[in-house]
Write a structure and sequence with these properties.
The two termini are 34 Å apart. The longest helix is centred in the middle third of the chain and has 33 residues. It is rod-shaped, with a radius of gyration of 27 Å. Helix 1 packs across helix 3 and helix 2 runs antiparallel to helix 3. It is an all-alpha fold and 122 residues long. It has 2 domains: 47 residues, no CATH class; 66 residues.
């Protein structure tokens, strides 16, 4: 939207978010720098509107994202290991089978721990 672009340009022109010591001071600076009433009204609306996302969820987002990536990697590793394991003969290749089965158990435990941490964060 052109009006939103203009708001962004006003913010950039006044020096960004770090130029004022308080939010009220910053909002006043932005309104003074607005080129017209439409942008000034939009800035006023943005300055009093409640945020759509809580600060807590913003703080959790990087962890949730990393947890999702790690979970996907674990799922792929588990799928690959299971595919190798079913091709092994546990009677003829006892050492390889036991080693891979141990790896499988360890990966399953890591995935379970990752999911439990994710559930606790909800």
């Amino acid at each position: 939207m052109p009006a939103h672009r203009a708001v962004r340009e006003v913010i950039a022109a006044t020096g960004g978010v770090t130029v004022a010591s308080t939010l009220l001071e910053w909002a006043a600076m932005l309104r003074e720098a607005a080129p017209n009433d439409e942008i000034r009204n939009l800035l006023t609306q943005f300055s009093v509107e409640a945020p759509k996302v809580s600060v807590e969820s913003d703080a959790r987002y990087p962890g949730e994202l990393l947890s999702g990536i790690m979970g996907a990697q674990l799922d792929r590793a588990l799928d690959q290991l299971k595919a190798k394991l079913v091709r092994l003969n546990p009677v003829e290749q006892v050492e390889d089978y036991n080693r891979m089965f141990g790896d499988l158990v360890a990966l399953e435990q890591r995935r379970r721990m990752l999911r439990e941490r994710g559930i606790e964060g909800l």
